[in-house]
Write a structure and sequence with these properties.
This protein has 11 helices and 11 strands. The chain is an alpha/beta fold. It has one domain: Glycosidases (TIM Barrel, Alpha-Beta Barrel), CATH 3.20.20. Strands 3, 4, 5, 6, 7, 8, 9, 10 and 11 form a 9-stranded mixed beta sheet that branches.
């Protein structure tokens, strides 16, 4: 094993309070999973085995910050948490320094990056946690700036921009697919054992914005997203890792495609796991007959996941861990979220027949 005197390696030596075994390149504890009761078990080598993941989200800044990492390791060491979902490519660009020039040119450069990714994933595994790389696929203003020919266009041929003024790369472009897959494959080589795709979608086509034009488009939005995920699944499966995808919570209950292209029946068969963002705060008033969804987290999550399970069963998908919801671990508007609301969402997940989840706090609090 290669030991380097980086911040992350020093962090591991200082913070490994419970897991005192040395790090080995043979992935010592990467199969650690929990059951619905929180006990530790090991995933079977069968490729159809779906480990129960209960994770924390680490944004790029948390992954770069030694005190923050020590704090999060302490949480994981003392609870049922068994995975870290770590930003490795987000809206600010790459969160690591790639050795490949064609990838490195899209680094971004203004928000820093993890100095030694292998040391980080080794540390995560030594704590008995699964390292999961979150990759923002198509909301990528950094790659769009560096590669203008990858972008969504306006009808006049100029670059289309969203309400934030950001350009998106074109999810219909196979060159964009290959770039994202190259990033994923490099991260697998650095020790990540699951790739979690986010922004597997097109930007919202607001009427207040110019029409979006996708150069070279040959597929519908939904079919293009499904084709990308199918290719990603094939490539990553060959490397022995899972390919998973974040989707809007509404996708579980809306029949047919959303305007951004996400459609349950198209995406579910081509991903190892779907992670619906069933945040109660994101549902309109009156959804599911609930006056204020944000005030009834149990009911919102339960209904959304019951619907997802029924739709999967019709597709012949019955693996309990095919759905791993995001849990709202943040407050929005007047309603404050804390332990009670998180516990209600967890219970809804278990009552719907699922066992895994990931806590989403944008600031990784």
């Amino acid at each position: 094993m290669r030991i380097t005197p980086t911040l992350v390696t020093v962090l591991f030596v200082a913070s490994c309070a419970r897991e005192q075994q040395p790090i080995h390149s043979a992935r010592p504890d990467s199969s650690r999973v929990t059951t619905s009761g929180g006990s530790v078990a090991h995933a079977q080598p069968d490729s159809n085995a779906y480990p129960v993941i209960r994770g924390l989200y680490l944004n790029r800044f948390a992954a770069q910050n030694a005190p923050k990492l020590r704090h999060l390791f302490r949480i994981a060491d003392s609870t049922e948490i068994n995975a870290f979902v770590i930003d490795m490519k987000d809206e600010f660009g790459l969160n690591y320094h790639s050795k490949h020039p064609q990838i490195a040119r899209n680094v971004g450069g203004t928000h820093g990056y993890v100095p030694d990714v292998k040391a980080l994933t080794d540390s995560v595994k030594a704590h008995g946690l699964l390292p999961i790389a979150r990759i923002v696929a198509f909301k990528d203003p950094v790659a769009a700036r560096v590669n203008e020919d990858w972008t969504i266009r306006r009808e006049d041929g100029s670059i289309w921009r969203d309400k934030e003024g950001l350009a998106w790369v074109n999810a219909q472009d196979s060159t964009v697919w290959e770039y994202n897959l190259a990033v994923a494959e490099e991260l697998v080589g650095l020790g990540f054992e699951e790739i979690q795709w986010d922004y597997i979608r097109f930007p919202e086509p607001y009427r207040s914005l110019p029409k979006q034009v996708f150069p070279g488009a040959k597929l519908s939005k939904s079919d293009a997203l499904a084709a990308f995920l199918k290719l990603a699944h094939e490539r990553l499966s060959a490397l022995g890792v899972r390919s998973t995808a974040d989707i809007f919570g509404l996708v579980t209950s809306v029949r047919g495609p959303l305007e951004v292209g996400q459609w349950w029946e198209k995406l579910s068969p081509v991903a190892d796991v779907l992670l619906p963002m069933t945040y109660p705060s994101h549902y309109p008033r009156g959804s599911f007959g609930i006056p204020i969804p944000n005030a009834d987290p149990y009911k919102v999550v339960k209904i959304a996941l019951d619907t997802a399970r029924v739709r999967d069963e019709k597709l012949g998908i019955t693996k309990a861990e095919h759905v791993r919801p995001w849990i709202q671990a943040f407050s929005l508007r007047q309603l404050k979220y804390g332990p009670e609301q998180i516990k209600a969402q967890k219970q809804a997940i278990y009552d719907a027949g699922y066992h895994g989840w990931v806590l989403w706090s944008p600031g990784s609090h």
